[in-house]
Amino acid sequence: MLSSNSLVFLVCVATAGVYCVTVDTPDSAVMCKDVTITWSGGVAPYIVEIVNSEDPTDTLPFNDRFNPGPTNDLNVTHIVAWEANYDVYWTVTDAQGEVGKSASVTVQENPEPGEDECLN
Fold it and tell me: Which residues form the signal peptide (predicted)?
């Protein structure tokens, strides 16, 4: 039996003739804590963006201390700089314009009191 990522990969190769970008969804996103986004496929360099799930035209800013810019890596780690209960997903665009998207994640409240200094 194929995993969902394997199936997506096979569909991408069969339909486009190129490797598409598959973005893994993080297990959680906690306000003012680090989250790591990983992906596979595509051609470097990659551009990572964060999107408001309720408005796909709304690309959210990274925390002021982190701006990944184009990267040749297959992952980025950044601080979750949005309030709790915000729904977000990540997109990764490769050098050929192929776009991969994670599933939506709801930002969780930070359990540590006063841990909201990272919010933009």
Answer: 1-20
